[in-house]
Amino acid sequence: MRGGYGASSLSMKRDPLNLNQKGSEFPLVLGRDVSGVVMECGLDVKYFKEGDEVWAAIPPWKQGSLAEFVCLSANEVSLKPKSLSHSAAAALPYVAATAWSALVNTCGLTLENSAEKRILILGGSGGVGTFAIQMLKAWGGHVTVTCSKDAERLVRGLGADHVVDYSAGPVELALGTLEKFDVILDNVGGDTESWAMGLLKPWSGAKYVTLVTPFLQNTDLLGVADGMMQTGITVASKALKHLCKGVHYRWGFFIPNGAALDDISEMVDAGKIRAVVEAEFPFSQVPQAFQKVEEGHARGKTVVQVIGGGGDHAEC
């Protein structure tokens, strides 16, 4: 987003009638996660009150969390887990909402039907992967993860049943020797879908969902209308192609979901999910925090502390 990614779609969402002057979204505040204290509520807000400790994942078309104050809709907010500090809580909402959207909304996994399901997470040591491992294990699923050798201890500590080191050789060959999967969550993208679809159980409702999609790139390059048309053609053709082979192909997207964060908060307080924080920076070092994130190969999340002494915290 700092480099302009998604600008066409997000600008249309902010100003669908194109009434505002071009560039009016600047200065753009980044940061998608927030954990902090409610300062004021609108007249129709009934569930929250001033002084409540809350967390949320902020929609990308809204101003972000790297600021002292954040304005959100009530349905995007949830009461923070009591067992977490603000700093730890800020590491969860965005990845939790993204994983929930992909695995629950798109793949249909729930507490009731996940037991005995075989799930493969491609790229399991980042923010979404480390959260997804814990949620799926709490629901009784069998989780296989791909990551580098130096992240194996982390993902096994979160509950992964089987770990494949992608740096040890062609990962598709190693995965091909295993029993086939019911669900694949792809955090890597690239050419993975060319071989990952063959790892699913055919004609059993098995689903592949990728979080690396060309939607925003298409709208940036082609404009909103043509980009959305190109996106629709791409996903429809791929879904139909793989459906003929007995497996389901899907795209996953982050969706703000305060209700999902309510359920996740309960899981956190029950000790089933913990925050995985790789690094923490003060607000004065936001540029260094972005440099850290842009290096890739994350082992959890990077947190920015906006206000010291127990106040608001934000993640980037």
Features:
single chain; 316 residues; alpha/beta; six-stranded mixed sheet; six-stranded parallel sheet; 33% helix
Describe the protein in words:
By secondary structure, the chain is an alpha/beta fold. Helix content is 33%, strand content 17%. The protein is built from eleven helices and twelve strands. It has a six-stranded mixed β-sheet. The chain has a six-stranded parallel β-sheet with strand order 6-5-4-7-8-9. α3 crosses α4 (127-138) and α8 (215-222) packs antiparallel against α9 (224-243). The radius of gyration is 20 Å and the shape is globular. The model has no long low-confidence stretch (mean pLDDT 92).
* Helical content (DSSP H or I, runs of 4+): 25-40%
Structural class: alpha/beta
| Largest sheet descriptor | 6 strands, mixed
Beta-strand proportion: 15-25%
Order of helices and strands: HEEEHHEHEHEHEHEHHEHEHEE
> Whole-number radius of gyration?
20 Å
- Which strands sit side by side, in order, in the main sheet? 3-2-1-12-11-10
Low-confidence stretches: none
Number of strands: 12
Shape: globular
